[in-house]
């Protein structure tokens, strides 16, 4: 930044393009979640699917025409149904899963096709909740200013609230010069730690949770790929003439490109190697709602701590999470039980202990491999 240039805080937020990553499957939220209805389509939070929340909270900062969705090819139709306000061409399906490095590269290439190398891209998630959307938009705007002011990639970290072992941690270093207040250089990544290490990270005050949300300029991310994952950049360059056009030629080119790509996260592929990564603390009530037990925090609770959604009645019961998605008057009743998770849908019912829900992926895999029950996870 030149000495006589404006401080980054005073720069108007640039036009930001949002790329929402919407892959994944429905293991942790079975039986509401299925292969064909993964977590981003779960609609028990405020009456609309999580992916709709992800788009709605961008209102006022990123208009629909600047939003791109990267999902699985077999989920494109369902995604379009969930997001009727978005142009159908803005929703692109990957032919196979190659983890977040490929998804981020593809989303960035789609933005490049629309707005060029100088465009600012926010990589966002489709299946999280934010309690304070206004603060979230402000954080994104600040990250957009940072990406416009300097050739950096900005990570939106989450202020830790407890020593969680299910999230990756990012250690913040010295303040980043020439950027809005609060941005710091990233010192290191700490993968999902044990409980003792997590407690140390929390106590130090130097760490944030890795939310998987990033903001960068197209050219800056492409330069990072050139240095750290040139094969992935080459694959995106082969798609460049067709990106943004859609149609069978693009789908065929995407299939050819993806067939040769490695399966790797953007953290491992690029972020942990980058020397221009900065981070800002996000304090907007983020929740990845990663399990039925955490989902219970978003439901109405009675005086005995039963968190319920739908037609549920509890007597002499405490500390349960109960969800009933049946609209036909079917009732779920809890009597004399504690610390259970009970989820009832039209064709399947889950009854588990709170601790047992940590093994939902195992249950999902078991149901998927059994011919008698595989229909209930599709």
Explain what the structure shows.
- The protein is of the alpha/beta class and 378 residues long.
- It folds into two domains: 8-287, Spore Coat Polysaccharide Biosynthesis Protein SpsA, Chain A, CATH 3.90.550; 292-377, no CATH class.
- 30% of the residues lie in helices and 24% in strands.
- It is built from eleven helices and 18 strands.
- It has helices spanning 50-56, 76-82, 99-115, 133-149, 195-204, 218-228, 230-239, 247-259, 266-271, 292-295, 360-369, and strands spanning 16-22, 67-72, 91-94, 120-125, 129-130, 153-158, 169-175, 184-190, 207-217, 277-282, 286-287, 300-301, 307-309, 312-315, 321-324, 332-335, 340-344, 349-353.
- A five-stranded mixed barrel has the order 6-9-7-8-10.
- The longest helix has 17 residues, at 99-115.
- The termini are far apart.
């Amino acid at each position: 930044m030149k000495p006589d240039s404006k401080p980054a805080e005073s720069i108007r937020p640039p036009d930001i393009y949002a790329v929402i990553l919407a892959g994944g499957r429905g293991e942790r939220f079975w039986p509401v979640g299925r292969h064909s209805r993964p977590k981003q389509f779960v609609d028990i939070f405020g009456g609309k699917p999580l992916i709709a929340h992800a788009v709605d909270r961008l209102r006022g900062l990123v208009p629909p025409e600047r939003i791109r969705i990267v999902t699985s090819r077999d989920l494109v139709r369902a995604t379009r149904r969930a997001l009727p306000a978005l142009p159908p061409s803005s929703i692109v399906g990957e032919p196979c899963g190659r983890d977040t490095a490929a998804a981020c590269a593809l989303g960035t290439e789609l933005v490049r096709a629309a707005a060029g190398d100088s465009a600012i891209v926010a990589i966002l998630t489709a299946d999280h909740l934010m309690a304070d959307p206004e603060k979230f938009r402000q954080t994104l705007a600040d990250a957009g200013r940072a990406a416009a002011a300097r050739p950096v990639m900005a990570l939106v970290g989450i202020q830790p609230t407890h020593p969680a072992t299910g999230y990756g941690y990012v250690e913040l270093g010295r303040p980043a010069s020439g950027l809005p207040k609060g941005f710091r250089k990233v010192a290191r990544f700490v993968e999902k730690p044990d409980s003792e290490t997590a407690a140390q990270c929390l106590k130090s005050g130097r760490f944030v949770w890795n939310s998987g949300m990033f903001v960068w300029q197209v050219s800056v991310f492409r330069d990072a790929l050139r240095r750290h994952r040139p094969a992935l950049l080459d694959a995106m360059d082969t798609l460049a003439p067709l990106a943004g056009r859609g149609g069978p030629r693009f789908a065929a080119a995407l299939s050819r490109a993806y067939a040769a790509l490695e399966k790797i996260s953007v953290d491992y592929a690029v972020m942990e190697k980058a020397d221009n990564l900065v981070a800002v603390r996000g304090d907007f009530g983020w929740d990845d709602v990663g399990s039925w037990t955490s989902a219970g925090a978003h439901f109405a609770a009675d005086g005995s701590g039963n968190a319920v959604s739908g037609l549920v009645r509890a007597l002499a019961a405490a500390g349960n999470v109960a969800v009933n998605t049946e609209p036909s008057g079917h009732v779920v009743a809890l009597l004399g039980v504690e610390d259970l998770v009970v989820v009832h849908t039209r064709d399947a019912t889950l009854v588990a202990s709170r601790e047992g829900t940590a093994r939902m992926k195992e249950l999902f895999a078991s149901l998927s491999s059994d011919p008698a029950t595989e229909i209930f996870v599709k």
